[in-house]
Structures
1.
Amino acid sequence: MLLSLLASTALAMQAAPANAPFDIETIVDLEHPWAMNFLPDGRMLVTEKAGELLVVSQAGEVEMTVTGVPEVAFGGQGGLGDVILSPDFAESGKIYLSYAEAGGRNVQGAAVAVGVLDLEEGALSDVEVIWQQNPKVRGRGHYGHRLRFSPDGEYLFISSGERQKFNPAQSMKMNLGKIVRLYPDGSVPEDNPFADKGGVAAEVWTLGMRNPLGIDFDAEGNLWEIEMGPRHGDEFQRIEKGENYGYPTVSNGDHYSGREIPDHDTRPDLRAPDEYWVPAISPSSLVMYKSGTFADWTGDALIGGLSSKALVRVTLDCDPEVDPDGICEAERYEMGMRVRGVVEGPAGNVWLIEDGGSRGGEGRIFKLTPKP
């Protein structure tokens, strides 16, 4: 009992990096946590890759495992992914889930489903699949499948990875390697940039993405994306209607085989990133921080890093002598863990999800609060 108590205390007193303006509190240990979002009552909805959707209190109590979640194809990078609330959640109880979905002959693809969450029964009902990657392919990587609603709640944006197949990112016959824009019911807005092409092209908002693992809106309503590059060349960029972001035609990284990819500056007709990393940070998630709780962070991008084991802060107000476009990495906090998720909490505190890949599949949730 004493050893258990000491271990618990050690977790709760996780040390912050020396340059960090925050204290760290360990909230809960979980299995393969991937994403989380806050309910109106302050509790958290947390996804675990193997297919569990949990309701967790801010004190770290796992209150329930929600039933009725779609079956997921768990393996590699696949499984249960993102979770967000419908803009009308208070009235409808609807939530949206992304996940890897199996197909015939050992193929998989990302899917997005919407269902009604009953917090009294701990159950998801009336589940409907509203979007799928097309086509499903072999392999278990680069699903992307991050979800965000536009600030007005009218549109659902979905990040779709190119599934490690390269060329689909440039093909308008597939929705792989794209940012997709839909109505909340999965139908396609007529003012999408390629709506006149029909088919899956009509869904596309931008193309030329590799593995877009984070999307979020800033306070002015601009959409931003963080993307894992090939061998280095990770990208952070503003997402603009109809733009082609170049992959795999150009990248500031190279193929893992060592074969070079032309840099972005060789193709000025393709949209270059606003910030990029060589060597890689392996970005996992993105929050455009809006609160004033961390006053120096307001308006900045907070990015989770996997191989870098860091929380990376990018400012949109950089000294022009450092970057003429005003966008650059401002600070990096060495967390000593694979940061899978970054979430802005209801009080402006920042919550992190640890990817426990090196810990046998375990992971943790942490809360960051400003130092006194």
2.
Amino acid sequence: MSDSPEYYAIRQRLTLGVNRYEIARTGADFEGGEQFAFAQQKRMKLKEEVRFFTDDTKSAIVFTFKARNVMDINSVVDVFDAEGASLGTFRKDFGKSLINSTWYLEAPGLPELTAREASDGKAIARRFGVPLRYDFIFRDPEGNEAASVFRKFGIRDSYKVTVKDTRYDERLILAMMVALDSLQDR
């Protein structure tokens, strides 16, 4: 695990018919920073897919994620680099998510991470339609925090992402973070 965390800001762009996200590598204040990727979710696809480009010209792909099956309650989502090599997978645990949304992230050669909503109370309230933001903490099997994402409400959703365990490929972590926005409430 690295001594210094990495920080990212994810901001959703307001557009009709397509989910778009700007991802920037920032400092601990989550302000400014250099653009890391621009993501666009294809709508009306039988299998969920999001492509991450270097910028909004969409001229070069950095990484992608794609569901193995038509999105169902236990579908596995693969994350690939620009050349198509696997970076890892993530999936939602439907049963546990009835109470508190629970996701699993797997990377080759590293322990599986479990991501759960940070507050059980907020998670349960959200099940009853209370419009609360959701925050997720990613933990390794020993319970150590590996990453977190905190959602900020506004005209457009934005997220503060902290990666404490930098052994995990940032592209895999960021793909999972965008999925939390685009797939969470399904």
3.
Amino acid sequence: MMTAVDVRPLRPVDLDAIERIERRAYPTPWSRSMFAGELSKPSGICLGAFQGEDMLGYLIVARYVDAWHVMNVAVDAPWRGRGVARQMLERLFELTGEDIDRGYTLEVRVSNDSAIGLYRDLGFVETGVRRGYYTDNREDALIMWRDPEPVA
């Protein structure tokens, strides 16, 4: 079931909600200052999925020379599996669609089947593995890549 959300740019006022979701979602959460740093970078894209004032999830993306690096995606537990992450990623693709010079890359835990499935559905392919990437349990990360959309 798809949950309708409003996807909009994140602002510093959203940091409390980001932190709450991050701490529940990850065993080694990012610090508040890491999020604040990403939100302050004009080259990045930081999006949140909201229903009214309630944040359901967020997406943090950095722009590099050859790629948009999806650095952090989280959806609060009650909303997982309901299309929230998909809607944020689709909004990212809309916002960056004219950028034909940059593809998209991300790392995902090899055990995260639901995320891997979503990324595959959105056109990402596996391009490698980062051994022992995650510091909490030394789990490997799958490196995934999506080519930029050709301009029609």
